[in-house]
Amino acid sequence: MRNDDEFQRHEFARRQRHELGGSSAWVISKEDLILSKLVWAAPTESAFRLRDVRKLLASGANEAYLRQWSVRLGVDALLRKSTDAGHDF
After folding, report:
1. 64 phi and psi, to 5 degrees?
2. What digits encode the pLDDT tens for the residues 57-79?
3. Largest Cα–Cα distance in the chain?
4. pTM value?
5. 6 pLDDT more than 90
6. DSSP SS3 for 3
């Protein structure tokens, strides 16, 4: 875990083990990846990370979860900006 905050603990608890090429790895959920990218993008509104977010959103995501946590993490405006730029929530 990067930080010991509520979201990081929640993200860590939701991870799932997947088999990849004969090895197993822990992988976070798509929603938690989206939220992490939004948090990382927030200080500079990184176009690169926001583009990643839009691509991830395009393939579907748990909207209620994203809305709840984006408000708690203070990135709800960036989530709305990402959805307005190419994906209807």
Report:
1. -65, -40
2. 999 999 999 999 999 999 999 99
3. 41
4. 0.78
5. no
6. coil
Cβ pair 49, 36 in contact under 8 A:
no
Residue with the two structure tokens 């209620």: 64
DSSP one-letter code for 88 = -
Contact 79, 85 (CB under 8 A): no
Asked whether residue 5 carries a pLDDT value surpassing 90, the answer given is: no
Show the beta-strand stretches assigned E in 1-89.
16-20, 23-27
Token digits for 2? 């990067």
Tally the residues of the chain: 89
Answer yes or no: are the C-beta atoms of 61 and 29 closer than 8 Å. Answer: no
Which three-class secondary structure state does DSSP give residue 21? coil
Could you give the 3-state DSSP secondary structure of residue 75? Answer: coil
Take residue 26 and report the two structure tokens written for it: 């822990």
Element (H, E) at 56: helix 47-58
- Domain ranges in the chain? 6-84
